[in-house]
Amino acid sequence: MRDGKPTPVTTDELFAGKKVVVFAVPGAFTPTCSQAHLPGFVVNADAIKAKGVDDIVCLSVNDAFVMGAWGDNANAEELTMVGDGNGDFTKAVGLEMDGSGFGLGSRSQRYAMIVEDGTVTKLAVEVVSLMLLQDKVALVTGGSGDIGGAIARRLGAEGVRVAVTYVGAQAAAAATVADIQAAGGEAWAVQLDQRDPEAIVACVAAVAAQFGSLDILINNAAWNIGIPFPDLDALDAEIWDRVLETNLRAPFLLARAAAELLKAGEGGHIVNISSAGGISPGSSSIAYSSSKAGLNHLTRCLAVAMAPQVAVNCVAPGLVEDTRMAGRLPDAIAAGARRQAVLGRVGQAEDIAEQVMTFVTSTSISGQTMVIDGGMPGSSDGRLPVYADAARNLGAVIAKRGFGLVYGGASVGLMNEVAEGALTEDGEVIGILPEWLESWEVAHRGLTELRIVESMHERKAQMAALADTFVVLPGGIGSLEECFEIWTWSQLSIHQKSIGLLNVDGYYDQLEAFLDHTVNEGFLRSTHRQLLLSESDPQVLLDALLAQTVPSAGKWEQT
After folding, report:
1. Residue 320 gets which letter from DSSP?
2. pLDDT tens per residue, range 427-474
3. Residues 433 and 559 in one domain
4. In terms of DSSP H, where are the helices of 445-550?
5. Which DSSP string do the residues of 510-529 spell out, in sequence order?
6. Are residues 180 and 280 in the same domain?
């Protein structure tokens, strides 16, 4: 469409001498295309063109008038809307789709390609869902929230008739319903306080009465309040009960109430929305982590109890951007989650919705929990917040004393925490990272200096050469291997530098007992044992390390 009129265009006019992104969809104004595909290119048009793209073409087997109206409706001024009326282009590239089963005739598959001067250099074709969920019925609890709303809209886009629940956020639930209806779907909102067992039974019955069946149950609704783990007194019985009743008991009661309806269809699905905090403690409260850990196991139990008619799975999000929950997190925690994500990004609500779609369209997956967190590498923060706090405090103490920090160069795990602690106090931080780890995108880019080396051996050699003393944080086999190697070097007089364990919360107590046992059994000299210091407080440990005089091999021989 040009100047309000359909205008013929040739492939030479579109592609000759240009770099063009083409994305094609089955039809204009269809739910999924209107909700996800076209808006995604509209929002990211400037970013795409900034990469040297001359034009973005949206193509569909529709007439030019329909494509023009769709573009106007979506504010797609930066895109070229092309109607492949007879499907000639679509057939020429071999990406047509038979939509006659849905009354659509011949259509284009969903795909995107990069065309450079008339040559296709990249092509991505979406697997066609064929609306496998058309006319199914889903109940999404907490559909008024960010994640629940995204799940409800995604299901609606696939032809699912959706019921969403809310407690007090009626307007937000109505907005979710309106979005689904505006895209051509069918949706309905119902109030539910899922702490009330009778209300749960009534809600499931109301959904069945409204839509005539129930095929999918999404246990998304949850309640939480932030209470630091060490503050046990603040987590009283009333809060504990409310969290567990909402987050764990209610999903079971909903599954029980919906069981016969779910079994009556061609294959029912339950998807529980848990949390990464249910796998690794460290979320906003002990009660919340415990409730989500219970939900993970409830998923496995229900998968057994409701087989083979109903598949039960679980999605466990980490940090989810642009949600109210993410907004409540302290900036440091949210920033840490972003840095630790190997993929360079944490989850979006739409990512959770896509994983739900994977589960509810599968006939071979049950009893599984999928974590959506951007990918966590091997380096870990540990199970308790006290480890991260201690590492960050150590970094701050080092910087405040005017010392520099040399460490492994990563933006994940306790390594990251100690670096951040030092950087917060304007300390000098040198990171040394093997190039293969850099390829995992875990390098910390905010250091005083980041050195990329070829191997782990070179990394350890440079760290040993630059450091004047060594502190071992709580860690796994990598930390232990480095500890014992640098300790052995001291024993062999390769260096005369002190080394100590930061024994946070008794983490190394059992290791120290074992080392004392090796002395008692005659495998380790007491002089050598004394070379490895241990303190729980960073200040005290640094004082001890600086005061220690490491003996030479000659002195050992005299003992």
Report:
1. B
2. 999 999 988 776 554 688 889 999 999 888 899 999 999 999 999 999
3. no
4. 456-466, 477-491, 509-520, 526-529, 538-547
5. HHHHHHHHHHHTTSS-HHHH
6. yes
Token pair 């500890």 in the structure block, residue: 483
Residue finishing a domain among 326, 342, 372? 372
Is the backbone peptide bond immediately before 377 cis, with ω within 30 degrees of 0?
no
Check pLDDT > 70 for residue 341.
Answer: no
Q: Are 529 and 500 in contact (CB under 8 A)?
A: no
Asked, for residue 425, whether it belongs to a domain, the answer is: yes
Structural contact between residues 189 and 163, judged by C-beta atoms closer than 8 angstroms? yes
Q: How far apart are CA 67 and CA 82, in angstroms?
A: 7
Residue 549 structural domain? 468-559
pTM over 0.90: no
Give the Cα separation of 477 and 526 in Å (integer): 24
pLDDT digits (tens, 9 = 90+) for 301-313: 999 999 999 999 9
Phi first, then psi: give them for residue 394, nearest 5 degrees: -60, -45
Residues 269, 143 within the same domain? yes
Phi, psi of 115 (to 5 degrees): -115, 120
Residue 40 lies in a domain: yes
Last residue of some domain: 90, 125, 160?
125
What integer is the mean pLDDT of 409-435?
89
Residue 304: inside a domain, yes or no?
yes
Enumerate the β-bridge partners of residue 36: none
* CATH at residue 115: 3.40.30.10
The set of residues, in sequence order, having a beta carbon less than 8 Å from that of 515 and lying 6+ positions away, is 524, 529, 532
Residues 85, 217 within the same domain:
no
Say whether both 67 and 41 belong to one domain.
Answer: yes
**DSSP assigned state of 505:** G
Give the CA distances from residue 137 to residues 74, 123, 549, in Å, rounded to whole numbers and listed in that order. 28, 34, 73
Alpha-carbon gap, residue 32 to 44, rounded angstroms: 17
Per DSSP, 284 falls in state S
What CATH number does residue 490 fall under?
A: 3.40.50.450
The pLDDT confidence band at residue 379, using thresholds 50, 70 and 90, is: very low
Which is it for the CA torsion 455, 461, 465, 468, positive or negative?
Answer: positive
Residues 223 and 343 in one domain: yes
Number of domains comprising the chain: 4
**CA gap 272, 294 in Å, rounded:** 11
With CA atoms as reference, report the closest residue to 244 among 293, 317, 279, 200.
293
Indicate if 168 and 273 belong to the same structural domain.
yes
Which residues are marked as active site?
Answer: 33
Q: Is residue 80 part of a domain?
A: yes
Q: For a pLDDT cut of 90, what percent of the chain falls above it?
A: 56
Query: Are residues 448 and 504 located together in one domain of the fold?
Result: no
Q: What H or E segment, with its residue span, contains residue 371?
A: strand 369-372
pLDDT at 213 over 50: yes
- Residue pair 157/31 in contact (Cβ under 8 Å)? The answer is yes
Instruction: Please provide the distance, in angstroms rounded to a whole number, between the alpha carbons at the two ends of the chain.
Output: 92
